[in-house]
Design goal:
Order of helices and strands: EHEHEHEHEHEHEHEEEEEHEEHHE
Largest sheet: 9 strands, mixed
Helix content: 25-40%
Radius of gyration: 20 Å
Oligomer: single chain
Number of helices: 10
Structural class: alpha/beta
Number of strands: 15
Distance between the termini: 41 Å
Strand content: 25-35%
Length: 343
C-alpha cells in the first residue's frame, strides 16, 4: 500500500529532485504540493496534473497525509518540520538539515517524542559512482579500505547561495560529507580549509577541503568548488589490496534537466555510460573497467515509505543528518582556528 505524501516547496529542488522520484516510487502517492509563488503554482499544475496545490502546510496536513517532504529554503525548514511532527506526520527534510548539529538535534528529539519518522534527503549517497564504490567495498576486492578521495567541482557561480547563512559548505558539503560517512563510517576528527568571496549579501564560503579521520582507522579527503570555472568529479577508494577510481558524471541530474523522468523506466535509470565506467585495480590482476552499479534516488523514497508504513528508522535517519552537521560544524571551526577538531 502506497503512503500519501505531500511536497512542501516547488523550487528547483522540489521540481527536479523530489517530485519525479516520488512519482517513480510505487510506495508513494504524491497527493499535494504546497507552493505560493504564482509562477511556481502554474508550473506545479502543469507538471503534476491531478495533484492538489495548497497555500500552506497546515492546509495540506488538514487534507490528510502520512508524510511530507520539506524542500523550502533552509531558514524556513525548522518551523515546517516541527509543525508536521506536531501533527503526527513523518518528514523527509531536505539538506542542509539545519544550520548546526545542535539545531538539527532539536528536530530529531521532537520526532522521537512524537513517534514519527524523520529522515534527511541525502540523495547523493544513491549517486551511481557512490553506489558502485559501496558495492566494491562490500565485495571485499579492495581488502581493508584505508582512504577515500572525493572531489566535486561545479562551474556554477550563479547557484552559490550568498551570505552567512548560505555558502558551499552547507550546500555541496552536506552531500560529499554524507557520502564519505556512508562509505567510510563515523568521523572522529576533522581538519579543514575554506575559500571565501565577498558578495553583496556578505562574506560567503565558496570552496573547501575537508580531511576526515574515521573511527575505522581510514581517512577521507573531500573537496568542492563552484566559482573556479572548473567541472571535475572524481572518486577514489584505496584499500590494502588495490583501488577503485571513477571520473564520474552526474547521470541522474543530467537526465532530469533534459526532461527525462525515472517513472516507468527505473531498470535503465541512473546507469553510467560504458565509456565512463570506473577502473578497479587490485594486486595480482590487470586493471579492469567495472560496469556501474544502478544509481536511483527513488530507492530513498521506497525505503522512506517502508519505514513510514511498517516502522523502522528509514534510509537516512535524522541522527545521520546530525552526524553530517557535526562534521560541517567541525570543519568551519577547524578552518577558523587553524587546527584539527575532534568530532
Amino acid at each position: 500500500m502506497a503512503i500519501r505524501i505531500g511536497l512542501v516547496g516547488y523550487g528547483d529542488g522540489g521540481r527536479l529532485y523530489h517530485a519525479p522520484y516520488i512519482q517513480a516510487s510505487e510506495a508513494c502517492d504524491l497527493v499535494g504540493v504546497v507552493v505560493r509563488n504564482p509562477e511556481r503554482v502554474r508550473q506545479a499544475q502543469e507538471d503534476l496534473p491531478g495533484v492538489a496545490v495548497f497555500a500552506s502546510l497546515r492546509d495540506l496536513l488538514d487534507a490528510g497525509v502520512d508524510a511530507v517532504t520539506i524542500s523550502t529554503p533552509p531558514e524556513t525548514r525548522r518551523d515546517l518540520v516541527l509543525e508536521a511532527v506536531a501533527r503526527g506526520v513523518s518528514v523527509l527534510a531536505d539538506k542542509p538539515f539545519g544550520p548546526s548539529a545542535e539545531a538539527a538535534q532539536e528536530l530529531v528529539d521532537a520526532a522521537n517524542d512524537a513517534g514519527v519518522v524523520l529522515n534527511v534527503f541525502h540523495n547523493r549517497r544513491y549517486d551511481t559512482d557512490v553506489v558502485t564504490a559501496r558495492d566494491v567495498i562490500a565485495g571485499g576486492q579492495l581488502g581493508e579500505v584505508t582512504r577515500l578521495d572525493l572531489r566535486f567541482d561545479l562551474d556554477e557561480a550563479r547557484t552559490l547561495e550568498a551570505g552567512p547563512t548560505g555558502g558551499l559548505l552547507r550546500d555541496l558539503g552536506s552531500h560529499v560529507v554524507d557520502q564519505a560517512l556512508s562509505l567510510m563510517g563515523p568521523a572522529v576528527s576533522v581538519t579543514a580549509y575554506m575559500d571565501y568571496v565577498d558578495l553583496p549579501a556578505g562574506r560567503t564560503d565558496s570552496g573547501f577541503v575537508i580531511n576526515i579521520a574515521h573511527a575505522s582507522g581510514g581517512h577521507s579527503h573531500v573537496s568542492s568548488s563552484k566559482i573556479n570555472c572548473l567541472v571535475s568529479k572524481e572518486l577514489r577508494v584505496h584499500g590494502t589490496l588495490g583501488s577503485y577510481v571513477s571520473d564520474f558524471t552526474d547521470v541522474q541530474a543530467a537526465a532530469i534537466k533534459c526532461g527525462e523522468r525515472p517513472a516507468g523506466r527505473r531498470s535503465e535509470w541512473g546507469l553510467e555510460a560504458e565509456s565512463r565506467w570506473g577502473t578497479l585495480a587490485v594486486v595480482g590482476a590487470d586493471p579492469v573497467r567495472l560496469p556501474s552499479s544502478h544509481g536511483d534516488y527513488t530507492v530513498l523514497y521506497d525505503e522512506f515509505a517502508a519505514a513510514v508504513e511498517n516502522g523502522g528508522a528509514g534510509p537516512v535517519p535524522g541522527e545521520q543528518g546530525v552526524a553530517v552537521l557535526r562534521v560541517l560544524d567541525a570543519a568551519r571551526q577547524s578552518a577558523d582556528e587553524g587546527r584539527t577538531v575532534t568530532v
